[in-house]
């Protein structure tokens, strides 16, 4: 997983990262290779990740498996997080025990087509 909080709040990249200040992007030079915040720009014009649709499909499949097929226990743990370090992770990380897959022979339902592949 990406550390979105840490990346989006890193003071080496962002002046006053904790402030809501969307105007900060008005002064940035536009470039095909420049950083564009997620959701900024039209993906058909090359301003978003070309792998966005496959990533969304994979995340849906992973979330479906984690919520419907994977069985696990979450023991007591220290989930305090130091947001000053990258990646920002809980002190005990995230611990799962007694992990098993419910009926591993059963396949997951297919992920619906993306707007790109559906011709949108």
Explain this structure:
- The mean pLDDT is 76.
- The protein has 120 residues and is α+β, with helices and mostly antiparallel strands.
- The protein contains 2 helices and 2 strands; from the N terminus they run ααββ.
- The chain has one domain (4-101).
- The chain is 18% helix and 8% strand.
Which segments are poorly predicted (pLDDT under 50) over 5 or more consecutive residues?
none
Q: Distance N terminus to C terminus?
A: 29 Å
State the oligomer: single chain
Number of strands: 2
Average pLDDT figure:
76
> Structural class given helices, strands, pairing?
alpha+beta
Overall geometric form: flat
What radius of gyration results from the CA coordinates? 19 Å
Give the tally of structural domains.
1
Q: What spatial order of strands do you see in the largest sheet?
A: 1-2
Largest sheet: 2 strands, antiparallel
Helix content: 10-25%
Strand content: 5-15%
Number of helices: 2
N to C succession of SSEs: HHEE
């Amino acid at each position: 997983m990406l550390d979105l909080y840490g990346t989006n709040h890193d003071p080496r990249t962002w002046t006053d990262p904790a402030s809501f200040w969307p105007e900060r992007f008005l002064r940035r030079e536009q470039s095909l290779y420049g950083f564009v915040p997620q959701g900024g720009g039209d993906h058909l014009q090359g301003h978003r990740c070309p792998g966005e649709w496959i990533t969304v499909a994979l995340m849906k499949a992973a979330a479906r498996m984690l919520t419907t097929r994977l069985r696990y226990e979450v023991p007591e743990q220290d989930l305090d997080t130091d947001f000053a370090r990258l990646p920002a992770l809980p002190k005990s990380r995230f611990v799962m025990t007694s992990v098993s897959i419910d009926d591993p022979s059963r396949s997951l339902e297919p992920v619906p087509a993306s707007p790109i592949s559906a011709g949108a």
